[in-house]
């Protein structure tokens, strides 16, 4: 279950090179608009004095850190701006592993594909606990797996690829399990604005020295290419995390941080509500068409993805290529997300053509 | 000689909080203008279609990689765009250390302060070779220090903090020493556009599987806050470097990469010549005033810095704070750059007030 660097790229390239019309549902790139105020932030930046083109503070521009701290109810000193959620998770996992409190990282299966690679790169050992294709995690399974060798428990809610949203009781119990085992719960909440269930609970809802929350504006503001994310550390872990951030990246990109600040200050909640409505509509259209065709799928409670499966079509790269060539729909093989998703395919709802895609799939596999 | 994360920040904060007028010569932040086309690139970006706001390729936008490859005479597949030279050096040093070909990193003394911290973070052991305060490196000293345990030799030319520019013979011999010892020469050339001597030689001038060249647009385009850099790897090392880049950062910030592309395509060589002229003038003014006052200094051949020393004022944080408070000039303690610079102070020529600064210093220490 090692992260296969080229797999996403391979599938995207294969889809792009395919003959004929292919509906691209490979990657989690929103196809909706970023807020207008974000564009305005870039325009404004172009005319700033030259000193604004120089290094921001390593931990990020102060007003954005303050805005995040105020919204999340934490101290501004706990907030480190990162190069997207990718770096936030890297810093969080590094900090958990470097404390001398174990070398094992508990990951779920299915898993977001980057976590295993980060674990290995940081010298940790992955220990998988089964969440099943519906993605719901039984805390007692995590409790049984945790030990004094557990450095971190890494979860993602709302979940990629399953769409699961963990209930409050699960989140609180995960924090408690981390505390009991001197581990760090790393809660990646990058899809928090795409909770379709109304039940999402952030790990910040429990005050604890044993949890780090990671997030980014990549999905919530539809700007995966800007690379502005953040991690919220307990006070005793933040200084070492800032040091690593400085030694790896020095700082993040300042115009992008500023544009995000403008967008945060000026974007109406209606923007996010409209994106959720769009996604909800696409979930209904896509799963409705699968339902009509008698196909098996997982109804997501959040995030951008639907897992689906078709008899005789395992969740492999071969199936994905076959569906690109012959059905004109590009997804990701479930096997990229772990053993328990190996009979599934993941489709990202980032195209207006989701109903047509489901119909194409149903027709092809019929 | 461990990298002290807060030292730069401490000094900058101390200078900012000081009473009265302080001339800031702490950090290598250009105070001159970025090219107008770079600003135009941001303006243009603000109006792009939403799909341009999503993930760029992990290794960076293709036309910028092509532009760099063409200018540097390497294959485009060898070029990885990074989050500034900081990440480029991190990726290069990580790759050198992870080959299973030694755990020692040869660094110069004086040294650019980030290299020791990166070495330790990556599990390497620093082995210092003396360059002396003038910064010139005798290759035979490096040859004597190199062994089968040498993973990397990390150099910076034009050099921060000494201003040394290595002659062609030194660069070629360093590559040969790396080859002989199965090591990697990491040549950080971020100040290449600020060679005042006309003798700068890139390590790219020797084709070798044992050198990685790192660079950035932070200094050459006066945009330290944009975070666009690159590393050029030998073909057999590039794939693993791309994997680490992806696992740490996913990708760099796309609007910043695009603005740099526009600036590269449209900026006249006269822009760089004017910046060199400005720097040359500042070097003359600053060192001239020091000379008149009978102070000791190192005449830089490139980069932004002048090392100076004054009898009775060692290169310590205490001296720096004293000079901020009582002379109204903020520099960096030489001790931050290693043993051999411990009697020196480093002044960055990033203010139009360099002559006044030198006069203030001379008057205070007289």
Automatic annotation (TrEMBL), chains A, B:
The protein's name in its UniProt record: Aspartate/tyrosine/aromatic aminotransferase
Family: Belongs to the class-I pyridoxal-phosphate-dependent aminotransferase family.
GO molecular function: pyridoxal phosphate binding; transaminase activity
Organism: Halovivax ruber (strain DSM 18193 / JCM 13892 / XH-70)
Superkingdom classification of source: Archaea
Record has Cytoplasm as a keyword: no
Quaternary structure annotation from Swiss-Prot or TrEMBL: Homodimer.
Cofactor: pyridoxal 5'-phosphate
Domain Aminotransferase class I/classII large residues, every copy: 21-360
SUPFAM superfamilies according to UniProt: PLP-dependent transferases (SSF53383)
């Amino acid at each position: 279950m090692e992260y296969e660097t080229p797999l996403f790229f391979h599938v995207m390239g294969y889809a792009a090179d395919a003959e004929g019309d292919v509906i691209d549902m490979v990657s989690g790139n929103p196809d909706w608009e970023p807020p207008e105020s974000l564009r305005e932030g870039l325009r404004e930046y172009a005319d700033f004095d030259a000193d604004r083109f120089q290094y921001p503070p390593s931990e990020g521009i102060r007003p954005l850190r303050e805005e995040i701290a105020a919204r999340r109810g934490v101290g501004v000193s706990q907030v480190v701006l990162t190069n997207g959620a990718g770096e936030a998770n890297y810093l969080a996992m590094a900090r958990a592993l470097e404390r001398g409190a174990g070398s094992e990282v508990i990951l779920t299966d299915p898993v977001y594909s980057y976590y295993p690679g980060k674990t290995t790169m940081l010298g940790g050992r992955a220990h998988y606990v089964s969440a099943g294709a519906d993605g719901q995690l039984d805390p007692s399974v995590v409790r049984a797996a945790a030990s004094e060798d557990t450095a971190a428990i890494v979860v993602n809610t709302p979940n990629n690829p399953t769409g699961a949203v963990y209930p409050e009781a699960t989140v609180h119990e995960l924090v408690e399990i981390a505390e009991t085992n001197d581990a760090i719960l790393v809660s990646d909440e990058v899809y928090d604005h795409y909770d379709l269930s109304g039940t999402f609970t952030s790990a910040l809802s429990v005050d604890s020295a044993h949890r780090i929350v990671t997030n980014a504006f990549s999905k919530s503001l539809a700007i995966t290419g800007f690379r502005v994310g953040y991690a919220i550390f307990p006070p005793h872990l933040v200084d070492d995390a800032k040091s690593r951030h400085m030694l790896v990246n020095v700082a993040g990109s300042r115009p992008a941080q500023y544009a995000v600040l403008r967008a945060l200050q000026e974007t109406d909640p209606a923007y996010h509500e409209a994106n959720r409505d769009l996604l909800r509509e696409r979930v209904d259209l896509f799963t409705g068409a699968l339902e009509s065709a008698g196909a098996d799928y997982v109804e997501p409670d959040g995030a951008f993805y639907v897992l689906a499966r078709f008899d005789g079509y395992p969740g492999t790269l071969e199936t994905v290529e076959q569906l690109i060539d012959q059905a004109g729909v590009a997804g990701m093989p479930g096997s990229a997300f772990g053993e328990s998703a190996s009979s599934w395919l993941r489709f990202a709802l980032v195209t207006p053509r989701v109903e047509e895609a489901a119909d194409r799939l149903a027709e092809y596999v019929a």
